[in-house]
Amino acid sequence: MKQRGDSATLTCDYDLEGGKLYSVKWYRDNEEFYRYMPRLRPPQHSHKLDGVKVDLEKSTARRVHLRELTLKSRGFYRCEVSEEAPSFHSAQAEDFMEVYYFPRESPRITGHERSYRLKEPLDVNCSSARSFPAPELQWLIDGQKVTDRSWLVAYGSKPAPQGLLVTTLGLRAPTKKRMKLKCVATIDTHRRERTVIIETNSGVFRHKATNLLIYIIVITVIRKEVL
């Protein structure tokens, strides 16, 4: 797995067992982009292919060096080795190269700004920054990973510009007096996180304040009538 903007060196190991090399050809999803033929001068030649930039100076008969990878660089890469006449024996092998994009931005948490009462269900969402492929999201409450699926709402991934994806995961856990919520986005070994603090309101003081206000208004009205 490679990150967008990185370079990659693909190696093709072979043993001709005394035979002479005729050609080595490289393909991305069945489209040729590089070949090495020792009988030609120069022996190397590259073909234009979207997402594939060959560095000829770093490429040889046994490897091809790609620079400035993009999301379009991902795909199945195949090398095909052929012997000289009279046999013209050939062999090939392929593998998939994944290219990912993991942003510097942390995920975004929404819904935590409102006031919550004790034991009222949370209504918060975590959305990743634009990435590829879709990152894995997870919630932690006070350092403990949320594993109760009834508390989680998976919204899945939505397309974003430049072929990227945004993933959202909701949290509907019951509130406590004070909670530290953390959302973690992961792709391969890369990780971004965001933390917020929620402090609940029991509603008792708010209720008392309302009763006191009504009481003061009633007293004021009575005094005016006496005068």
Describe it.
This protein has one helix at 204-226, and strands at residues 2-3, 8-11, 21-28, 31-36, 44-46, 63-66, 75-83, 90-97, 99-100, 108-110, 124-127, 136-141, 144-145, 152-159, 165-171, 178-187, 190-199. Helix content is 10%, strand content 42%. The radius of gyration is 31 Å and the shape is rod-shaped. With 227 residues, it is mainly beta. It folds into 2 domains: 2-100, Immunoglobulin-like; 108-199, Immunoglobulins (Immunoglobulin-like). Mean pLDDT is 87; it is low at 203-227. It contains 1 helix and 17 strands. A hairpin with a 7-residue loop joins β4 (31-36) and β5 (44-46). The longest helix is centred in the last third of the chain and has 23 residues, at 204-226. The strands form 5 sheets. Strands 5-4-3-7-8 form a 5-stranded antiparallel beta sheet, with no helix packed on it. The chain has a 4-stranded antiparallel beta sheet with strand order 10-11-15-14, with no helix packed on it.
Which descriptors apply to this entry?
227 residues; mainly beta; disordered C terminus; Immunoglobulin-like; 2 domains; 4-stranded antiparallel β-sheet; 5-stranded antiparallel β-sheet
Give the SSE map.
Layout: E1 2-3, E2 8-11, E3 21-28, E4 31-36, E5 44-46, E6 63-66, E7 75-83, E8 90-97, E9 99-100, E10 108-110, E11 124-127, E12 136-141, E13 144-145, E14 152-159, E15 165-171, E16 178-187, E17 190-199, H1 204-226
Parallel strand pairs: 1-9
Antiparallel strand pairs: 2-6, 3-4, 3-7, 4-5, 7-8, 10-11, 11-15, 12-13, 12-16, 14-15, 16-17
Domain Ig-like: 1-89
InterPro entries: CD80_C2-set, Ig-like_dom, Ig-like_dom_sf, Ig-like_fold, Immunoglobulin_dom
Organism: Manduca sexta
